[in-house]
Amino acid sequence: MNEHTVKAFDEDIGELRGLIAQMGGLAEAAIDASMDALKRHDLEAAARIIDGDKQIDELETEVERLAVRLIALRAPMADDLREVVAALKIAGVVERIGDYAKNIAKRVAAIDGHSVIEPLSLLPAMANMATDMVRNVLDAFAARDPEAAVRVCEQDRAVDDFYNSIFRTLVTFMVENPKSISQAAHMLFIAKNLERVGDHATNVAEMVYYAATGDHMGDRDQGDTVPLAGS
Amino acid sequence: MNEHTVKAFDEDIGELRGLIAQMGGLAEAAIDASMDALKRHDLEAAARIIDGDKQIDELETEVERLAVRLIALRAPMADDLREVVAALKIAGVVERIGDYAKNIAKRVAAIDGHSVIEPLSLLPAMANMATDMVRNVLDAFAARDPEAAVRVCEQDRAVDDFYNSIFRTLVTFMVENPKSISQAAHMLFIAKNLERVGDHATNVAEMVYYAATGDHMGDRDQGDTVPLAGS
């Protein structure tokens, strides 16, 4: 590559990083806003979150277009190619995090805070832990910091523990409040969505680690957290 | 492109299609097997499904490697590039469908068929509808058939209706059987996983349509199905 090509590549990859940071900021804000709408049973705010998800989707399309153009025109090799592919995949994951915020917003109408006060108070704390992971992992991506990525993976254990505790709390709540079972079931899905946000942040952390080092972080346990039977 | 390049591209894209067909077959079989393990409370079969998911993940990595090589070396334009990007994204979605089978398998231990016979009988029928969509959409991809892709999207409505009906059945069951609430909650997640399989097949259908025609199928309602409050 000549100097001009290198500079053009750096500009493109900088643009990719900027788009992903923008997506991440929107996804994080959408999750915070969904918790707020839930607490206040604010249907208008929920509708805005659902509608706002389109913006994240559009940014993902822009990332794809740019990444494909970059691969096709600049034919990056090794490290650079690994970084473009990581950006493409990270954008896909952040888009899914945005979808979780949208899904939570869709449940606002189904949950009336007054009748399910107790378990409702646990969700925002869990949401904070999950969005914290998203923020940290995107910072790690921007800084190409593999150590920060490892720390994000460690945070995921706390989110999983929190999820298991909410699952048990909600099942107990259902047993004691059969009239609120439908609402509690919706809250169970919200807790699961937040747990998945943590999983996705972990996935991104692994991609950041791989893009920065060329090595895999090792076979960590991924995927759905299933509390033990009878819990 | 000269004749040699065209032929090499066709071979590569054929290999991509073959890998995706293989992934789809494995994902479909994993969902069927998870229903079977659930009905028979077969923990060994469940463990095999969980372990087998790695194979689908490895195939996705192979698709990525091949697609990136194809874009970088052959620099495909317009229609061809659209098809490679579609293949890349479709592989990602099929990998997620495999994850749902794994997640269902993880819940086998938490569900004892004897105490939840009634709602348990509904899940395999829903699973059949969802895997039918997966099979049809991968056939549509192999045949580059946009009309078949549209039909897959239409099938998704039936899966969503089924999900809403299972949600109501399970909530009623929980009210009447407070001791089985934890198990019923796991079944709710299984039903939700199957509903998401249908959504993902719909996403793939839209990619197949776009890859084949260059047009978007139109703004269909996507994402999480949330039954109405009080249902």
From TrEMBL, chains A, B:
Domain of life: Bacteria
SUPFAM superfamilies reported in the protein's UniProt record: PhoU-like
GO cellular component: cytoplasm
Subunit details: Homodimer.
Transmembrane stretches, start-end: none
InterPro entries hit by this protein: PhoU (IPR028366), PhoU-like_sf (IPR038078), PhoU_dom (IPR026022)
Keywords: Cytoplasm, Phosphate transport, Transport
Family per similarity comment: Belongs to the PhoU family.
Swiss-Prot/TrEMBL GO biological process terms: intracellular phosphate ion homeostasis; negative regulation of phosphate metabolic process; phosphate ion transport
Protein name per the record: Phosphate-specific transport system accessory protein PhoU
Region forming the signal peptide: none
Record function comment: Plays a role in the regulation of phosphate uptake.
Location within or outside the cell: Cytoplasm
Boundaries of every PhoU domain copy: 20-108, 125-208
NCBIfam families, sorted: phoU_full
Pfam families in the record: PhoU
